[in-house]
């Protein structure tokens, strides 16, 4: 059966990963969460005092890139692949608000993007893949058969993220999460290297008022059209 590449871009907390996981499970495709890869690099940088609220040792991080080994490993109990950094499972560590604050700074660095884009393109060379991020439609897979661009209001996205963090037991305020969402939007859309933009041929989906089920069925029909 024909396999295609599904590329999903969009703002933070628009449910890109949730949708991508649903599609991959339904189609028997490989799912790659590129955001987790950037979060893993940010986590490494934090652990090695290369980034903080007040500083970024860009040269230091670039020099450390050969020491950063990333891979996804399927957790069959959970039904999805988890992020490993240098053979350590860091899935829980990279989902914190602290890492969220640093990830856009790290993702601005061209050398970091080049390293991760190369890995992402290698993962998708045989098609049958669903990948989400910020530059998948524009840089990683510009020839993808289906391109989606996800958006929603900043307050809607902040509420989703806030609920998710509280459910995980993290102590955050809504205002803190909203500020983080808006700050990431600004950095992602204004960086020099591969800024977040909607590809000309991407289908925009504003899911501010869509349920996960409604969104999934809408996109699955788009997939079927291309198959």
TrEMBL record:
<dbReference type="InterPro" id="IPR003136">
    <property type="entry name" value="Cytidylate_kin"/>
</dbReference>
<keyword id="KW-0808">Transferase</keyword>
<feature type="domain" description="Cytidylate kinase">
    <location>
        <begin position="6"/>
        <end position="224"/>
    </location>
</feature>
<comment type="similarity">
    <text>Belongs to the cytidylate kinase family. Type 1 subfamily.</text>
</comment>
<feature type="binding site">
    <location>
        <begin position="10"/>
        <end position="18"/>
    </location>
    <ligand>
        <name>ATP</name>
    </ligand>
</feature>
<keyword id="KW-0963">Cytoplasm</keyword>
<protein>
    <recommendedName>
        <fullName>Cytidylate kinase</fullName>
        <ecNumber>2.7.4.25</ecNumber>
    </recommendedName>
</protein>
<keyword id="KW-0547">Nucleotide-binding</keyword>
<keyword id="KW-0067">ATP-binding</keyword>
<dbReference type="InterPro" id="IPR011994">
    <property type="entry name" value="Cytidylate_kinase_dom"/>
</dbReference>
<dbReference type="InterPro" id="IPR027417">
    <property type="entry name" value="P-loop_NTPase"/>
</dbReference>
<dbReference type="Pfam" id="PF02224">
    <property type="entry name" value="Cytidylate_kin"/>
</dbReference>
<keyword id="KW-0418">Kinase</keyword>
<dbReference type="GO" id="GO:0016301">
    <property type="term" value="F:kinase activity"/>
</dbReference>
């Amino acid at each position: 059966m024909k396999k295609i590449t599904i590329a999903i871009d969009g703002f933070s907390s628009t449910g890109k990963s949730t949708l991508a996981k649903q599609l991959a499970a339904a189609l028997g495709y490989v799912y790659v969460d590129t955001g987790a890869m950037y979060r893993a690099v940010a986590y490494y940088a934090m652990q090695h005092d290369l980034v903080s609220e007040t500083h970024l040792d860009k040269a230091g991080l670039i020099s450390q890139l050969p020491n950063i080994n990333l891979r996804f490993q399927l957790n069959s109990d959970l039904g999805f692949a988890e992020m490993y950094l240098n053979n350590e499972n860091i899935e829980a560590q990279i989902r914190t608000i602290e890492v969220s604050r640093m990830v856009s700074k790290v993702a601005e660095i061209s050398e970091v993007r080049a390293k991760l884009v190369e890995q992402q393109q290698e993962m998708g060379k045989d098609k049958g893949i669903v990948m989400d991020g910020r530059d998948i439609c524009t840089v990683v897979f510009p020839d993808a058969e289906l391109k989606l661009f996800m958006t929603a209001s900043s307050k809607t996205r902040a509420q989703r993220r806030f609920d998710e963090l509280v459910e995980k037991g993290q102590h955050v305020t809504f205002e803190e999460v909203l500020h983080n969402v808006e700050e990431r939007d600004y950095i992602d859309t204004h960086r020099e290297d591969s800024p977040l933009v909607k590809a000309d041929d991407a289908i925009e989906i504003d899911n501010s008022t869509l349920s996960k089920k409604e969104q999934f069925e809408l996109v699955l029909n788009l997939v079927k059209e291309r198959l």
